[in-house]
Structure formats: structure tokens, C-alpha cells
Amino acid sequence: MASVIQLDHIWKTYRTEDVELHAVRDVSLQIAKGEFVAIMGSSGSGKSTMMNIIGCLDRPSKGTYQLDGIDVSTLDRDGLADIRNQKIGFVFQGFNLLTRTSAVENVELPMMYSRTTIPSRDMRRRALKALDMVGLSQRADHHPNQLSGGQQQRVAIARALVNEPALLLADEPTGNLDTRTSIEIMEVFQTLNDQGITIIMVTHEHDIAQYNKRCLVMRDGVVRSDTPVVDRSSAKAQREALEVHAAGGGPKA
């Protein structure tokens, strides 16, 4: 299967006066199309630096990085910006929606930064399609203050999908959500992955990592383990169980 991510001997070193800090140390990694990967690690483990490199928000000090067949490790700032817009969809802990703008207009935003002019009609069609993918097309005209936290995160996911990226990169996407809403959002991610979308998720929550198919654990800038997720959780099954319990269908005392 074709690789979306290919990291070869990646280092990231920060220098302050005479001190060198190796945030990422000689990491080689391959992620194939259609994978769903969690990156875990404590503070200072290197997972955030790894996310920044994979997301083309930063460049490695040494090594090569190919994203969807393109060597991005030596691109300049403008080149990295183009790759971020064309190849990567970002979902963050904060929803980062424009408060005075409707859901569909928020989803349209990445297309406005494309180097190729996209007709308004096509922008609207693609934005509505992305909202439909996350189950929120019926809220297209609602503003963020009219949406729940989970619905706002769905809008953010739709915005990340609208340019049909090679990679969806999620950084603690459930960090601001309660347990029930987190399960609903993970169901969205699992559904998207079942449709063939490649997802990398940075998280510190073990229960969230259990929804992924593969888990990388980083420590001291090194990938210490890279294993398939055993007994993977089904967000749909957990959501349905919560709904049954809330409806009074749980086990009787």
C-alpha cells in the first residue's frame, strides 16, 4: 500500500547558546494510506515536535520527509504553506471558528487560500459535502454560538476535509469535550477512516488512543513503541450503549 508519510532518520535540534536539545532523535517512520495512528507521549516526549514536522509547521534539522510522494523536508516557507493547504487537514483542541460566520462559510475558508480560484458555487457545494460527511449538513446556516461543542468540532473537521487532503492531522481533538461528546467525535473519525481517509491523532488520553488502529509512543524524542491497537474500541457501539442507558434500557438493579 502506498505511503502517505515517509520519515527517514529525522532529527530536530534546538540550540540555545552552547546547549543542544534534541527534541526528535533519528526517527524513521512509515504510515500507509488509510491508516489511523495515535501518537502518544508525556510532556517533553517529542510528540508535539513530531506533529509540527508531519504537519509541515516546522522543518527537520536532519533527515528527509516525504508527504504523499513529495519531499517536503527542504521546502521554504511558501512551499510549506502550499503543502499545508493542499495536502493536510488540521483539527485542533480549540475549534477556531469565526464567531460571526455560519458553519458552511467557516468550512469554505481553506478554499479561499487556494492558489487556484474556485468559483463560489463550487466552494459552497464542496463545503456542504464536507458538512454532510460529518453529519452536520442540517446545521450549515447556524453560527458557532448556536452549536454545541461537539457540533463545533464537527464543523472544524469538515473544514479540514474540504480540500480533500492526503492526511487529516488531529491534535488533542477531544481535549475540550466531555466523555459522551468525545465518543461522538471519535465515531466521526472512525467513520472517515473507514472511508479511506488517513488520520494521525496526537493525544495523551489512553482511552482515545484505543479508537485508533495503531499507536506510537514517544519518549525523549524517540519512538519507543509502535504497535497495533489490540481490542480496538468502537465509538459507535459505545455511543449506542450510552443512548440505551440514558433511555432507561440499562441493566436493572
Description:
- By secondary structure, the protein is an alpha/beta fold.
- The protein has one domain: Rossmann fold.
- 35% of the residues lie in helices and 26% in strands.
- The protein is built from eight helices and ten strands.
- A six-stranded mixed sheet has the order 6-7-8-3-9-10. A four-stranded antiparallel sheet has the order 2-1-4-5, with helices on one face.
- Strand 1 and strand 2 form a beta hairpin.
- The longest helix has 16 residues.
Q: What helical percentage do the residues reach?
A: 25-40%
Strand order of the largest sheet: 6-7-8-3-9-10
Q: State the oligomer.
A: single chain
If you consult CATH, what is the topology? Answer: Rossmann fold
Report on the biggest sheet: 6 strands, mixed
Task: Look at the helices and sheets and give the structural class.
Answer: alpha/beta
Number of strands: 10
Terminal Cα span: 51 Å
**If you average the pLDDT, what whole number results?**
92
CATH architecture annotation: 3-Layer(aba) Sandwich
Order of helices and strands: EEEHEEHEHHHEHEHEEH
CATH top level assignment: Alpha Beta
Radius of gyration: 19 Å
Task: Give the count of helical stretches.
Answer: 8
